[in-house]
Every structure is written in C-alpha cells, then in structure tokens.
Specification:
The protein has 109 residues and is mainly α. The protein has a domain at 80-109. The chain contains three helices and two strands. The chain has a two-stranded antiparallel ribbon with strand order 1-2. Helix 1 (27-46) packs antiparallel against helix 2 (51-73). It is flat. The termini are far apart. 1% of the residues are buried.
Length: 109
C-alpha cells in the first residue's frame, strides 16, 4: 500500500527525492466521453437493431466506459503494471468464461 508523504505518493517520488512528473488527466474531457458513450448506448436501444448486434455493441461500449473509469478515475493508468494486471486478469477471465458458456446455450445446439 502506498503511504502519503508531503501530499505526494511514494510512487511519484524519484530515487533522488524529487517529484516525478505526473500529468493530471482532463476529468471534464473523460466525463464528456462517458456522457457520449451513455447517449450512444441509449440511442442504440431505440434503433431496433438485431438482438446480437445490439447486445454486442452495448457490451463493447460498456467495456470502453469501464476502461475509461478504471484508467483515469481509479488512476490505474499511472500505476505499476502489476497492479493493472491484477485488476484486469479477472475481467479477462470473466469475458472468456462468458463467451465459452454462450456456446453452450440453446441457439448453438
């Protein structure tokens, strides 16, 4: 776990004790992208697309939104790769597992 020293996390302090450059994300820009994706999701439902296309497009947009939230609002973009791997490996497993279970559903028999 990170400890906070003088308002700066240890991961932001270099070996010489100086602060590493850390660009702050544009939270308003990320919020706008999340809003646009949400409006696209709502609009996709009203387009009366074929069900498989609708579900797959909604899932893709939801995954993009989840990735944006995780990267910027949860600050995973600025973390070490190990923490990102620990966070994303269950997501990857669940997607693979869900796809494999879908092949066992009635439309594929």
């Amino acid at each position: 776990m990170k400890s906070k020293t003088d308002g700066v996390f240890e991961s932001q302090v270099t070996s010489h004790g100086s602060r590493a450059p850390h660009a702050h994300p544009n939270y308003i820009g990320i919020w706008v992208w999340l809003l646009v994706l949400t409006l696209l999701e709502v609009g996709a439902v009203y387009l009366h697309l074929p069900r498989p296309l609708l579900v797959s497009s909604l899932l893709v947009m939801a995954l993009v939104k989840a990735a944006l939230v995780a990267m910027y609002y949860m600050h995973l973009k600025f973390e070490k790769i190990l923490l990102t791997f620990i966070f994303t490996s269950p997501l990857i497993f669940s997607v693979v597992f869900t796809v494999l279970v879908l092949f066992d559903s009635p439309p594929f028999h």
